[in-house]
Specification:
- By secondary structure, this protein is an all-alpha fold.
- The protein has a domain of about 50 residues.
- It is about 50% helix and about 0% strand.
- Belongs to the complex I NDUFB3 subunit family.
- One of its GO terms (cellular component) is mitochondrial inner membrane.
- InterPro entries: NDUFB3 (IPR012576).
- This is NADH-ubiquinone oxidoreductase B12 subunit family-domain-containing protein.
Length: about 80
């Protein structure tokens, strides 16, 4: 177990003061001018919403085709059977 710090240096206060959010978020004079970058049409969801256009429609179409093939396109020939 560590004893008291002989130098008097408080590492926890140093970490809190050195974190960028605590220092610059309070003192940045341009912070209010930068908020538009992360709100409204530029929010994280809206930026990545159009990343894969058509993926939803293609997924539904492929699932529909797989269901159609499974239920309606039965192979009656059985080419691998040995009895003729």
């Amino acid at each position: 177990m560590a004893g008291p710090n002989p130098t008097g240096f408080n590492f926890n206060e140093f970490k809190a003061a050195a974190s960028p959010r605590s220092v610059w978020a309070k003192k940045d004079p341009w912070a209010r001018y930068e908020t538009w970058r992360y709100t409204g049409p530029f929010s994280r969801f809206n930026r990545f919403k159009g990343l894969f256009p058509g993926f939803g429609i293609a997924s539904v179409a492929f699932a529909g085709y797989c269901a159609y093939e499974h239920f309606f396109l039965k192979d009656d020939h059985h080419h691998g059977d040995s009895h003729h």
